[in-house]
Amino acid sequence: MFNLQTLLLLAVAAGSATAGPLQKREVKNGEPYNCGCSARKQELVGKGANAKDIAIGLLEMGSLLDASYTYGDGKSSDAANFGLFKNNWFMIRTACSQFSGQSAEDYNNGAVLNDDDAAAIKCQHEQMDKYGDAWMAGQRYGPSGITDPNNQVVQDYKQGLAYIQGYIEEGHLTDDQATWAEVQAI
């Protein structure tokens, strides 16, 4: 039997091998499972997270435990990702008060979000407030997403996030239940 992380890695690898960055592909939604993450969900909600934040954490990380992925998610400059939600540096520096006025070259400053969930949540909410409906496009595809919010990568991300968020909002905000959706790795 495969664990969730193995299934997600296999799904990402399969998706990366079969679809280009803007190709239409079916977003696969997963079955609910016991994540054993009720304490972590409760901790994040206590720090200001809402159902959308929990869903983003599950979609981006496959779990909500921490931001222990490759530094910057293996990316640099505006593409580097930080924090529990893997927010990209472009979105962080252009919307979060803590990083106001910083440049693409200052991306290493975003690493503080990897160890401070409250700051990561606050920063994500500032991004959502600034960008409104375009936030999701920028979260998924950076400045390219902001200028072309209707590209397929963004649409697939929206679909996957909506599925997970809907499940969380059905009474699973702080329990041990979660679900997943396969979206294309970028």
Characterize the structure shown.
Strand 3 and strand 4 form a beta hairpin. The strands form three sheets. The protein has a two-stranded antiparallel sheet with strand order 1-6. By secondary structure, it is mostly helical. The longest helix is centred in the last third of the chain and has 18 residues. It is built from seven helices and six strands.
SSE arrangement:
Elements: H1 4-18, E1 28-29, E2 33-34, H2 38-46, H3 51-61, E3 81-82, E4 87-88, H4 89-95, H5 117-131, H6 135-147, H7 152-169, E5 177-178, E6 181-182
Antiparallel strand pairs: 1-6, 2-5, 3-4
Helix pairs in contact: 3-7, 4-5, 6-7
- What is the spatial order of strands in the main beta sheet? 1-6
Overall residue-averaged pLDDT value: 85
**Helix/strand structural class:** mainly alpha
Largest sheet, in brief, is: 2 strands, antiparallel
Outline the low-pLDDT stretches. Answer: 1-25
Tell the overall outline: globular
Order of helices and strands: HEEHHEEHHHHEE
Oligomer: single chain
Strand content: 5-15%
Gyration radius, to the nearest Å?
15 Å
Helix content: 40-55%
Number of strands: 6
Q: What's the tally of helices?
A: 7
